[in-house]
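Input:
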Amino acid sequence: MAQASERRGSIQASIITIGDELLIGQVVDTNSAWMATALNKAGIWLRKRVSVGDDKAEIVSALDEECKNASIILITGGLGPTADDITKPVLCEYFGGRLVIDEGALANVKAIFARLNRPMIERNFKQAEVPDVCTVIQNKRGTAPGMWFEKDGKIFVSMPGVPHEMKGMMMEYVLPHLQRFFTLPFIDHRTLLTAGIGESFIAEQIQSWENALPAHIKLAYLPNYGMVRLRITGHGTDRLRLREELDVQFDALKALVKQWMVIGEDITLQQAIGNMLIQKGATLATAESCTGGYLAHLLTSIPGSSAWYKGSIISYANEIKEKLLQVSSHTLSTAGAVSEETVQQMLKGALTQLNTNYAIATSGIMGPDGGSPDKPVGTVWVAAGNENNIVTEKFSFRYDRKRNIEMTANFALNMLRKIIAEDPGR
Amino acid sequence: MAQASERRGSIQASIITIGDELLIGQVVDTNSAWMATALNKAGIWLRKRVSVGDDKAEIVSALDEECKNASIILITGGLGPTADDITKPVLCEYFGGRLVIDEGALANVKAIFARLNRPMIERNFKQAEVPDVCTVIQNKRGTAPGMWFEKDGKIFVSMPGVPHEMKGMMMEYVLPHLQRFFTLPFIDHRTLLTAGIGESFIAEQIQSWENALPAHIKLAYLPNYGMVRLRITGHGTDRLRLREELDVQFDALKALVKQWMVIGEDITLQQAIGNMLIQKGATLATAESCTGGYLAHLLTSIPGSSAWYKGSIISYANEIKEKLLQVSSHTLSTAGAVSEETVQQMLKGALTQLNTNYAIATSGIMGPDGGSPDKPVGTVWVAAGNENNIVTEKFSFRYDRKRNIEMTANFALNMLRKIIAEDPGR
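Output:
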């Protein structure tokens, strides 16, 4: 267990997220993933993530358990003003304090209510109460203050569960203070993306390289949407030396998977496409039927995407395919909306109507209903290209609606990426 | 702690998700939320969710810890064919077995490779190995079989981390077998959505009702996107009696929050809109600038939405606003793209071009760049309505790009919901 002992050498953290909503599935816990990334970049090893309900016994048991092995315990959730939120009184009792009004927190709550023009009631004043045994972390984005406790050389931090409030506190207060409190090792990553090859086949190709990795450098396979991301993670005290070691190992890995590598850094397909379009001074449009705006959403989630993405015509109804994308009614009535001809015409319509260099078009049956023996659920046609070069491909996905949409979007993006990369023009 | 003892009366489960990717934040754990919902519906109380890395000591420690308090331990992840996946050998050793080839799993792996037309290598054969002390759960969607272990009256189930493979096993095998193994209590929920009122103010309004709730019925506040969902959860052995009790309490709650309640059941705003449009036989289009397809994505994520949603014109570039939505160039150059006039014209353009009864239009500055003193990042104009009634509203959000987009979409949907609900026509 070389890896485990490596990890044990570093400062370790646990995350405890609190809230019944996490235990009945009403909310997906995105906070933990964000905090994990932030800790990792700061050189802190996250050893465990735990979610418990709004239940005193469970919260206390998680605190007892996690501080056995971790030096940093980050807690989110359960700080709201209502009766089901019990994190603050439980922590107050756990650390042997009593609740007192914090003047900074009170001024903040009052300012927020004044801005919203809402009356303050007694339980809003309670939001400004904190245990007298903690350092208060002021909340610039909401009413619940954060709390920093120290006990036996360990740090416990309680933050609100609202994502942007937690993120603000982490960036502005918690991470800088943790950096100062502990002497942190350095953790670094290198990531690449492959397509068209399975996880086990990659493993076979790179086996002897992987086996020869030193103990403080580790490889992970992260398959998603039919592609596999490979990530090497190194761990050490000499920042510069680690960086050089990782570069050498990463170059060796890239050479081994060269023919399947589609991106050589830790960015998404849509980011890679955006970067290539900026370099070429080119523009993109989409014409979406089955992806229903998901492609446009992925592309416009990138800051600054308006520089190269002009828009989309989402033609969920055939009438719109005809009217706005000039798909011929003959094609729709003979080949059908889910056909190679239709996506070709949709693509041409997008290039013309939205006046761009490149376009993507999608049409398919995402399920659960709408399939036929000829075109079962999961049948998808994608076209990608420019006015000189249109590539089409048919896919047969066998997932649920959500994943069929996601798979279509990712395969379509990869088709376009290849076309742009190989385009001699511009 | 009446609630805690209530919970302790029921069959309890823990979820252990395994994978370094969960600890460095590369992947958001959506599996846990899905499993939590499924367990909850089956009358099993999920008491804790734990995520650990691909590390033997951590996995064993989590197994030891969780089986102290839970009767069911559901495990996902770490079953891939590569060296970083160690869940199977660790479980094999933990339960004192040895790995043997399972003929059913082997046939499945072979069939998958034949279908993909990929060569099988040694580590693919290893995918068919299972501990001889488990019951094998065949995987109809991938190569890694699931494993069911029984020890001291407790159930341990190991499943792949790929979401649709895990979901298939849960629905087809794990949940039915758990139902048979344990005598399960009945858990039921009632949910409503409020808008335009804060969590603490609701709490004040319903305080005496909440305090009088019996111990086996519990209220939770779930704020999101500036709205608050209220959920009551009941717990008991008499299914019919519990249902009646919940109905009575829910009616009382609905009466108390009547003026802020926008939906009286556990569905999303977009589902509520879809239901109303079906009832009216009416159709919807969107014209999106700043939401960039996210509105269309939310609407088309609903199965069957093609019956009432016709499509969107995503006009990320002003040129597209003019050309496809007939926004006047004068408006764009004087009032600007982010203005009341522009979204009004976009909305009219969408109604005409996409030929629908209702439409939504959005335009704003989502950040991080693009703001000005006049129109800072987070400035958003939304229009919603039909040809006779267009409502506009300006918002000033102060979040990151992702959340600004989500907030805009949710507020826009709620504006439309209100218009449709109050529309005397049709």
